[in-house]
Design goal:
Blueprint lengths: L1 H10 L1 H29 L12 H27 L11 H31 L4 H7 L4 H11 L1 H25 L10 H12 L6 H11 L2
């Protein structure tokens, strides 16, 4: 069982490293997001969190994304896709531009999820949750905390949805190697299989044996 887990981890090392880097990016994203909200809402500290205007929420969301993408690129460029460096199709400035472009596509997913959840929670659709939060008990406490930090949880949900799209774009476009055998173990395995399946590849090794067996 342990060997199988290790094999799966080795097979999907790149995606796991990408997620680990993304975890650090989430911390950077949230820190920037909270700091931006604090600065922009500092003159309205008496207002409820839900009273934050649409543009304040989205400016904070964008700033958190922009700063976290910079840190994610630096780590992914050095760690996640380091084995593809010999085959990069673009120099560093072009990789930065490509990474921000692909990350912006993922950001649109995050943006849609964030605004959809915030709108739903602040609209009459969120009334049942507010009724639960007004009661007593552990569930009411959890729901109350969720509503109190609704923008943070909406941001996290958007980040989670955007992670897969961001990884696929980074792997197949931003950090795409020129040689297929420099990619993931999956790609390397496919490349090795393709080389073994090439006509004449085995015959060259079999010919000496065939000649020795001939009388």
């Amino acid at each position: 069982m342990t060997g199988r887990i290790r094999a799966l981890a080795a097979r999907h090392r790149r995606f796991l490293t990408f997620c680990a880097v993304g975890g650090s990016g989430v911390a950077v994203n949230l820190a920037t997001f909270w700091a931006a909200l604090f600065v922009m809402e500092s003159g309205h500290s008496h207002a409820a969190p839900a009273a934050g205007s649409w543009w304040i929420n989205n400016v904070a969301l964008f700033l958190g994304w922009f700063v976290s993408v910079a840190s994610n690129f630096a780590l992914n460029d050095r760690l996640t896709f380091r084995d593809a460096q010999a085959g990069y199709n673009a120099h560093w400035p072009r990789r930065v531009a490509s990474y921000y472009t692909s990350a912006f596509v993922a950001f649109l997913i995050q943006w849609a999820c964030f605004n959809g959840l915030v709108w739903a929670l602040e609209s009459p659709l969120g009334d049942p949750l507010r009724h639960v939060a007004a009661t007593d008990g552990f569930l009411a406490l959890c729901v109350g905390v969720g509503l109190r930090f609704s923008r943070t949880f909406a941001n996290l949900a958007g980040i989670a949805l955007a992670t897969v799209a961001n990884y696929l774009l980074a792997k197949h476009w931003v950090f795409r190697a020129a040689r297929p055998d420099l990619g993931d173990s999956d790609d390397a395995g496919e490349a090795s299989s393709a080389r073994l399946a090439t006509p004449g590849a085995l015959n060259e090794h079999q010919r000496p044996t065939t000649q020795q067996e001939s009388p």
